[in-house]
Specification:
Elements lengths: L4 E3 L3 H7 L11 E4 L4 E8 L4 E9 L17 E3 L10 H6 L1 E6 L1 E8 L2 E9 L5 E11 L5 E11 L2 H4 L4 E3 L1 E2 L1 H8 L20 E5 L18 H4 L1
Parallel strand pairs: 4-10, 5-10
Antiparallel strand pairs: 1-2, 1-7, 3-4, 3-6, 6-9, 7-8, 8-13, 9-10, 9-12, 10-11
InterPro entries: SRAP, SRAP-like
EC number: 3.4.-.-
Pfam families: SRAP (PF02586)
């Protein structure tokens, strides 16, 4: 699964790398947790344009009775996403990128769970494969929320966990957003990312607390000692 990640890129860098029409209004985040706002890019059917959007992490199905359901749907298994009631409609019509530059996973040790940070070797930001949905409360409040797709772990990740988030290679990003991409054309995009292009290292357990959000969260333990 993917339960925490970071995104601390400069807004100008984000606009250039992800080909956005304008510079997004974002601030550095080093320890993003479920139900918080996350940076996404989607294709708006109304305008037929790519749009940057902050969304709540944890997909709230349009038919949900209340927003609490979203806390349980921060991830969606790519193997079953086309069939699950919560995800099958977004999988067809509401796909997005969820922007990140690293993510965390925990290894179980004798002294407790040790967090590890995973990122690309070149330090470049990347896009998780995501789905989004629009939900309206009985009182009229509208919430746009999202979930991160997961797949089986690559070699690097499998040392810590059996699953990993789906990272879209730059060559696949446009296909994921394109509404014309459907059915069997989507599944080849949902594969483990190449281990050879990634690194991981242990980080401080300070990041276990969601309220802790500082550059120290992504630093190797050795750098903090």
């Amino acid at each position: 699964m993917c339960g925490r990640f970071s995104f601390y890129q400069a807004p100008e860098t984000v606009a250039e790398l992800f080909k956005l029409a304008g510079i997004p209004q974002i601030k550095p985040r080093y320890n993003i947790a479920p139900t918080q706002s996350v940076p996404t890019v989607l294709h708006r059917e109304e305008t037929q344009e790519r749009q940057f959007q902050m969304m709540r992490w944890g997909l709230i199905p349009s038919w949900a009775k209340d927003a609490k359901m979203g806390a349980k749907l921060i991830n969606a298994r790519s193997e079953t996403v086309a069939e699950k009631p919560s995800f099958r409609s977004p999988f067809r019509r509401r796909r997005c990128w969820i922007l990140a530059d690293g993510f965390y996973e925990w290894e179980t040790t004798d002294s407790g769970k040790q967090p590890f940070y995973f990122q690309l070797k070149d330090g470049e930001p990347f896009a998780f494969a995501g789905l989004w949905e629009r939900w309206q409360s009985p009182e009229g409040e509208v919430i746009e929320s999202c979930t991160i797709l997961t797949t089986e772990a690559n070699e690097l990740m499998s040392r810590i966990h059996v699953r990993m988030p789906v990272i879209l290679p730059p060559t696949s990003r446009d296909r994921w957003l394109d509404p014309a991409t459907q059915g069997e054309d989507l599944h080849p995009l949902l594969t483990p990312y190449d281990s050879e292009t990634m690194i991981s290292y242990p980080v401080s357990r300070m990041m276990n607390t969601p309220k802790t959000d500082s550059p120290d969260c992504v630093q190797p333990i050795a750098a903090l000692e």
